[in-house]
């Protein structure tokens, strides 16, 4: 898998998890208590079933009932939420589309385009030099860089380096 695809998938997962956390009080808190972390859930299986049902409902509304061929399994959700980053989780394009639609994008291509456009605007507004968009920005810090450049920039700006365990791209 290309690094560019990994960055997009990481961003997709981050937005997905953030949406779940943001909707927790209204959708899942009553059944699963206060949210502290996904790992702390007492019944991961029951939560995944509830989340899958919610995704089906949202897709049904957004795609006017044409979701039969688009859905994925509870096992996929488990890997996407709990195992992503610990081992390579391959995500088929149709599953990328489903998650993108759940997040409010038209599809996977729309997600990629909006992320690239958004980060390009951020990048051009924060620098005076024009930078080629042949490299995507780091999802963590939004800089266009190689690993070596990123490490130098973080150290020179007196920021703390992100943990390798928690963030595979920096």
SSE topology:
Layout: H1 3-27, H2 29-32, H3 44-62, H4 74-83, H5 93-102, H6 108-126, H7 147-156
Helix pairs in contact: 3-5, 5-6
Fold and architecture overview:
The protein starts with a helix and ends in a 14-residue tail after the last helix. Helix 3 packs across helix 5 (93-102) and helix 5 crosses helix 6 (108-126). 13% of the residues are buried. The model is unreliable at 122-136, 144-156 and 161-170 (pLDDT under 50). It has helices at residues 3-27, 29-32, 44-62, 74-83, 93-102, 108-126, 147-156. It has 170 residues and is mainly alpha-helical. It has seven helices and no strands.
Largest sheet: none
Number of DSSP E strands: 0
Radius of gyration: 18 Å
Q: Helix count? A: 7
Report the β-strand fraction as a percent range.
under 5%
Task: Summarize the helix and strand pattern as letters.
Answer: HHHHHHH
- Secondary structure class reads mainly alpha
- Principal-axes shape call: globular
Low-confidence stretches: 122-136, 144-156, 161-170
Distance between the termini: 17 Å
Please estimate the helix content.
55-70%
Average pLDDT for all residues: 74
